[in-house]
Each structure stands twice: as C-alpha cells, then as structure tokens.
Design a protein that fits this description.
This protein is of the alpha/beta class. It has eight helices and eleven strands. The chain folds into two domains: 3-149 and 214-256, Rossmann fold (3-Layer(aba) Sandwich), CATH 3.40.50.150; 153-213, S-adenosyl-L-methionine-dependent methyltransferases. It has helices at residues 3-6, 8-14, 20-34, 50-57, 69-85, 123-135, 150-156, 217-226; strands at 40-44, 61-66, 92-95, 107-112, 137-149, 161-167, 170-181, 186-197, 203-215, 229-236, 249-256. Strands 1, 2, 3, 4, 5, 6, 7, 8, 9, 10 and 11 form an eleven-stranded mixed β-sheet that branches.
Length: 257
C-alpha cells in the first residue's frame, strides 16, 4: 500500500494550503496560449481530482486517471455530489498507471501535475509514461507536465520539513526527511505521518518513502524524442519565468514531433 492510499482521506487536508485555483487558472492560461481551440483534457495522476473539478468549471471536458483506488473514491464522491447539484459536467475518473494505462481516447490536452513524472524514477519508467502521453494526444494537441528541477535540487538541496495541520476532526503532523542520491538523480523522501482523531483520541502512524527523480532539460528532451514527442519549451511552474538555480518546479511543454 502506498502512502497515498493509506492517507487518501487526509490528503486534501495536508494540501489545503496548495492554491489549486491559482494553478488551474495558470493551466487554463497556458492552454489558451498553446492550443486555444482545446476542449478535452486528460489529467494523468489526478489524485482526488482537485485540479480536474476546477478545470471543468473553466470550460474543459476532463478525464482524470490515478493508480490509487482510495484517491479515486474521494474524487468519485465529489463527482456524485456535484452531478446532483447540477452545473458544469463533472470530470470522469478511471484507475490506471501512468506507465501503462490506455483509455482508447485522444485528448486536446494531456497534463500530469504535482510531480507525477518525478515518481518515474528510471529511464524505462519515464519512457513508458511519455508513451502514455503520446498515445492519448489528439492531432495538434499539447502536453503539459511538471517535475523537480535537477540544478536546483543539487544546489539548494532538500531539507527536513515538518507540516502540521488541523481540520475535519483530525490533527495531522507530517515529517519529511530527504536523502539525496546524486548518482541516481533521485531523492528518497522518508515520511512519518501522525494522524490524531480528536473525536476518539486515537492516533495512527504511517511511514513511507517516496523516491523522487529530479530532471534536467536535455534528458527530458532526449527521452521525449525517443517516443515521438518534441519539447517546445521549459519554464518555471506558475511564473513562466526562465529556469534557474532557484526553480524547484519546472514545467515542460511538449507536442507530437
């Protein structure tokens, strides 16, 4: 069981300080610039669907894919609630691995956010994920994905972080202890998560290691080319600024070669 399955019910609490609306506006702006006629969107590694619901509100028909059944239960519950309330057509969700899922559909835009590509830690994993991106891309479509940016990881270095949040009857404390492996281009982020139920007084402890790959522009370009994709540009996520030694989150824009 991955940590995302183990604490899927606390996931949105842990990331409630993440500005999903700002990110959805940013993605919409990118799409309007890169592919203004786009209407359909595939989100690979959608988690609980927070981006997807916001993107449907911004006019796109969205399908989200995640490998965690527990994450998708949260997304499907929200989808059911919104469908009953009326309004924009809510996203569709499907379970699958970014390396192997095949929906038999093509989309104007394929996105993969929140460092999903950094979870593809081997060249084989990345190539398989990039093939999935290509296989679901409609003619003239655009691909958007982000990752940890290698030059910053090696100069700024990941540090121990503690995050404490309260809400929905729970107190959650997450300790993240990173270990850098420079010869493998990965960082092991060792998580310890304490979840206290204020109603029952019970406490649960979860432990998991997330292995995260940091990427460099030339290797992304080379691997994309191997599966028939072309890197159009790379920039800093949310700012569109030039990549620098202070850029932790790099955004890549790609198309069919």
């Amino acid at each position: 069981m991955s940590v995302f399955e183990a604490y899927s019910q606390y996931y949105d609490l842990l990331y409630r300080d993440k500005d999903y609306a700002k990110e959805a506006d940013y993605i919409k702006g990118l799409i309007e610039r890169e592919h203004p006629r786009a209407r359909t969107l595939l989100d690979l590694g959608c988690g609980t669907g927070r981006h997807d619901f916001l993107l449907t509100e911004r006019g796109y028909r969205v399908t989200g894919v995640d490998m965690s059944a527990d994450m998708l239960k949260v997304a499907d519950a929200e989808r059911t609630k919104r469908a009953r309330a009326g309004g924009p057509q809510p996203p569709e969700f499907a379970q699958g691995d970014v390396r192997s899922v095949r929906l038999g559909q093509r989309f104007d835009v394929v996105v993969s956010l929140f460092h999903v590509m950094s979870y593809q830690t081997s060249n084989a994993d990345l190539l398989a994920a990039f093939e999935t991106l290509r296989e679901h891309l409609a003619p003239g479509g655009v691909i958007l994905f982000d990752s940890w940016y290698g030059p910053t990881v090696l100069t700024d270095r990941p540090v121990v972080r503690i995050k404490r949040l309260s809400g929905d009857g729970y107190d959650v404390t997450r300790l993240a202890e990173p270990v850098l492996h420079p010869n493998e281009n990965v960082v092991d982020v060792n998580y310890q998560i304490m979840i206290a139920d204020r109603g029952t007084g019970k406490t649960e402890k979860l432990e998991e290691t997330h292995r995260m790959r940091y990427l460099f522009v030339p290797e992304v370009q080379a691997l994309l080319e191997r599966v028939g994709l072309r890197l159009d540009r790379a920039c800093e996520f949310l700012t569109d600024g030039e990549l620098s030694f202070s850029t932790w989150n790099a955004l890549f824009v790609a198309r069919a070669a």
